[in-house]
Amino acid sequence: MRSPDASLRGGAVGATTVSLSVAAHGWADGGYPSGSAAVLVLIVGLGIGAVSAVPRSGRATVPLLLAGMVLGQFASHVALVVGDPHAMMHGHTILPSPAMAAFHVAASTLAAVLVCAAERLYGPITAVVRSVLDPPQRLAVPPGLAVEIASPLPRAPFEFTTSISRRGPPTPA
Known about the structure:
The protein contains five helices and no strands. It has one domain (4-133). The mean pLDDT is 78. It is an all-alpha fold.
């Protein structure tokens, strides 16, 4: 069974892999994805997110997430290039240019640090939110100190001895 941390980590890694690979690819003058390239990038993001959500002992470390995200960035780059046949015909190679590789690595590093920070802050932040939103607990009263207060009004009976009539008013003649 997966922990909530692992599920959130997998979703965060998959989503940031897709969004950052498309953004870094576009910033380095690689263009934005067409329909088939976008589907391939989404598949890569789902795969990287599922692999990073695999349960393991302890929390994810920055180098481990960085390796997964860099792999995801370069797999996304290949998906973006292969998914756009016009780019292949106009000289866009499968191997990224140095500027594009630098953008992909920088985006991966920043995202890995942010995902690890979010995973570490998930527990304390949810504890604060739970403590603020939960209703206060009732204090336990020792049995000898409980005082029963008599009700000033008579209580209604719990059982109705007669049925409630469903008959309406007479119809006009």
